[in-house]
Amino acid sequence: MTSMNPIERASLIEEKLPLLYRQLQICHICPRRCEANRPAGETGYCGAGQDLVVYTAFLHHGEEPGISGERGSGTIFFSGCNLKCVYCQNYRFSHSLEGSRVSSEDLARIMVRLQEKGAENINLVTPTHFLPWIMDGLARAFRNGLMLPIVYNTSGYETVEVVRLLEDAVDIYLADMRYITPSLAERYSQAPDYPAVNQAALRKMCDQKSAVWEGPLVKQGLVVRHLVLPGGVDEAIKVLRWVNENTPEALISLMFQYQPYFKACLYPEIDRRVNEEEYESVMDYLDELDLDGWAQDLSPEENLAGVHFRPSLEGLI
After folding, report:
1. Chain-wide mean pLDDT for the chain?
2. Residue 1 in contact with residue 212, Cβ under 8 Å?
3. Residue 114 to residue 110: CA distance in whole angstroms
4. Which residue, 16, 118, 238, 286, shows the most beta carbons closer than 10 Å to its own?
């Protein structure tokens, strides 16, 4: 975790706020670069406009063990998304703006309240399209006593420029590596540039944050997540190989919780769960590598998916 005190972190973040808010006028915050004038009320590809929208926040015990710990990760789920995968398990709020419209001051209060409830860290889920407000809220929270590590929980579809802006604000990158193959990224997420963009971002994240542990908890570093899709053994092996060769200091998190949510039924090849043979093939390859991290069981708890979360900020504002 950064050696800076919270007030120093707040000051460094505040220096970046004018640039971040200006970027909303011709929005280039994410790789879509859709150029929406969000302060004027236009909405971007992500669905977001001029308001910060939070779907829910709570102490989450379903993240990686090194993130959730004993007391839970103070997780804030933002509505909307710049990737919009066809199999999204959070589709109820990631493909819409369902949730509560809050201010940066409100967001700061949510963070501090989660700390008071015993959170191990503050976990920002799908945050980039709201980055100016979130950075503003972080600065306010640091000035109001927030001391926890900050987790940036992202689809991995990030520009290197944004990762640079995050260096002083974030301790842990919890970043997806969804695809290596552009055609898959295009078919399921309408983002054929995802692999190139993602790999550049992960390299920058790894350069910024070396792994730091405090007992069983991760306090700083990069965790690379990969959700294994049905029929995705070759893709999973490519992801593991890439991480092993390019960011070997990163922690790996292999996820087998895929279910055919949302529009997956329209894609016959992914309209099922991962089977035992696929699971064993991926795990056998992982065993050949010298990567640290976690792998889910083949049948993890189904209620971990975002479709089961209820919209609520009760007791946090």
Report:
1. 96
2. yes
3. 6
4. 16
